[in-house]
Amino acid sequence: MKSNDPKRWFDFLDYISGDPSLNVWHISLLVAIARLACRQNEKWVIRVSRSKLMTLSHINTLPSYHKYFKQLQEFGYIKYTPSYHPGYRSTVEILKRPKD
After folding, report:
1. Is the separation of the CB atoms in 94 and 85 below 8 Å?
2. Which residues fall within 8 angstroms of residue 52, CB to CB, at 6 or more apart?
3. Which positions ≥6 away from 48 have C-beta within 8 Å?
4. CB 46 within 8 A of CB 91
């Protein structure tokens, strides 16, 4: 299966929609991450920026963004690896996913 296969991401969306602990903002962030993965032709590790994720997820305030992003980490959905170098983006790895 190709890394940017749309079926992979539809399966992922079906997978997360079954989790009652996720609300609309969690799902919005995960959809934004999936969109970036498709654009970057990545499988499960995606280069991200806060501003891009906020725009794609329609989250307009920093406190809300940080709250839901942190909860996704606590729920075990993502692993965030910050980059402190201005030339490199931070990465998000999707940990909870349907079986490949």
Report:
1. no
2. 32, 36
3. 33, 36, 89, 90, 91, 92
4. yes
Q: Model confidence at 1, in pLDDT bands (50, 70, 90)?
A: very low
27: left (phi over 0), alpha (psi -120 to 50) or beta: alpha
The sign of the torsion formed by the CA atoms of 11, 13, 14, 20 equals: positive
Q: pLDDT tens, 26-75?
A: 999 999 998 998 888 888 899 999 999 999 999 999 999 999 999 999 99
Q: What size, in residues, is the chain?
A: 100
